[in-house]
Amino acid sequence: MDNVENQQVSIINTPMDLSDRELVGYPYLIVLCKVTMPRIFMKPRTAWTVITVDLVKGVPLRSNMFPETNEINIDSSALVPPVLTTEEAINKARKLVIRWVMHKFHAFKNPEIEIVQQQEVYKAFFFSEIDGKEILVDSVKGLTGEDL
Question: Whole-model pTM?
Fold first, then answer.
């Protein structure tokens, strides 16, 4: 019998039934930021934003919410290893927050960015056979017309 090492990870919730499927986990870091911007002759403005950093490609993107997750046990060989460290991912998230603040609020000074919550999560992918072709299905997004 193979010596399989299982690991407990957080998977982003999905409406799909993932039981009895061979999953592949893709790593992300989700960061909830509280941004405080100084304003002349007024109280500081506070804004909240969630940033999702792809830990393989290093791409940070703004998200509309902090996702709900489930803990699952998965074979560690089915997890894509992250390329970025958590510290590098947080730096990329901070840079994106600054660009967003400068664009959205026309801030004249750098804002104060507080990391309120962070979590390393995985997005589950699985293989499915459709019309005799094996395709990789994103468990959060599902299939689109381009995939078929």
Answer: 0.86
